[in-house]
Design goal:
By secondary structure, the chain is α/β, with parallel strands linked by helices. Helices cover 39% and strands 13% of the residues. The chain has helices at residues 17-24, 41-49, 61-71, 88-93, 111-114, 140-146, 149-160, 165-178, 184-192, 206-217, 219-233, 247-260, 295-300, and strands at 31-34, 53-58, 78-82, 100-106, 234-244, 283-285, 308-314. α2 links the parallel β1 (31-34) and β2 (53-58).
Length: 324
């Protein structure tokens, strides 16, 4: 279908959009959830692909406000709810939705968030050290101010896979003793002062900013809850499609999908769990390995380069063959 006239333009470019639609396979009369509404690109594409209903969730009040404008172009078909996608079960049940034909989760940041210096997600422009996807809870500045040196180092290593985490934590603690660290530029400069620039062109502050953002928003916990609740909500034949952007996210998705499809590695023969008979898997993998964006998409949108798409389907008698 073509895009309706006067539909609000999207500043955010949806990643792997054709691949997402192929994996989700929207159908007439279906009910779908876009658990990470953001700029609305996925929701709009699903609504254009078939005469169906889309429920969308976002914890960002600004995204929900944008959703109201988009919903006006799809009367009765698009419904946007404020909240975390890790609470999708309660949020949807409160709206009378008990089952879904598909769920899609784009785990990347919205360009609206990255490109707004006031949100504090990026060090490209100076702004308050916030990093919250929603409007509540401690900011990144709060964490930088109160975490001990050991806690900071653990956070940077665990969530940013930063090998120089202890050096960075030591520098942060020394700097905050002189003056509070409240802006993105000051934090980035502290990190750059102790981490040498690598030959790959990645800014030395990148991994640390990722780590703080993940902890501020409990992103990995939210993903774990969302995967479990999405599996509960899927009707027979329903599909779960997830696009992740770094190894921590993709590892959670890959492991969960393998477990649901009965593909998890068997326990050691010395482990008592190895004696248990496994039940029939309730799901099947639609992607045997993660799909990647094509070179042309990466050329148009460099932010797509790290995207990985995986898809899972609840078993029914008409399950579709797996994608390559």
């Amino acid at each position: 279908m073509s895009t309706p006239a006067n539909t609000p333009a999207l500043a955010h470019i949806p990643v792997m959009l054709p691949e997402m639609l192929a994996a989700l396979a929207p159908r007439e009369g279906g009910v779908y959830l876009d658990g990470t509404f953001g700029g609305g690109g996925y929701s709009r594409a699903i609504l254009e692909a078939a005469p169906c209903t889309v429920w969308a969730i976002d914890r960002d009040p600004l995204a929900v406000a944008r959703g109201a404008a988009l919903a006006a172009h799809y009367p009765g078909r698009l419904h946007v709810i404020e909240g975390g996608f890790g609470q999708m079960l309660a949020l949807l049940q409160a709206q009378g939705v008990q089952a879904l034909d598909g769920v899609v989760l784009d785990l990347g940041l919205s360009s609206y968030q990255i490109d707004d210096p006031g949100r504090g997600f990026s060090f490209r422009a100076d702004g308050p050290l916030d990093m919250r996807m929603g409007a509540a809870g401690p900011t990144a500045a709060d964490l930088v101010a109160r975490l001990s040196e050991g806690e900071l180092a653990d956070t940077l290593y665990q969530f940013g896979e930063e090998r120089l985490s202890r050096r960075i934590a030591r520098a942060i603690v020394a700097a905050r003793a002189e003056a509070p660290i409240t802006t993105t530029q000051r934090l980035a400069e502290i990190i750059r002062g102790v981490v040498p620039r690598s030959g790959d062109g990645i800014d030395p502050a990148t991994r640390s900013f990722q780590a703080l953002r993940i902890r501020v928003n409990d992103e990995l916990g939210e993903i774990t809850r969302a995967l479990q609740e999405a599996a509960q909500l899927l009707a027979p034949g329903g599909r779960l499609v997830v696009v992740s952007f770094h190894s921590l996210e993709d590892r959670l998705v890959k492991t969960f999908f393998a477990e649901q499809a009965g593909r998890a590695p068997s326990p050691s023969r010395h482990d008592p769990r190895g004696m248990q008979v496994r039940g029939k898997a309730g799901f099947r993998l639609l992607t045997n390995k993660a799909q990647r964006p094509g070179d042309s998409e990466i050329g148009r949108n460099p932010r797509a380069r790290s995207a990985r798409l995986r898809a899972l389907q609840r078993q029914d008698s008409e399950a579709t063959e797996a994608f390559p």
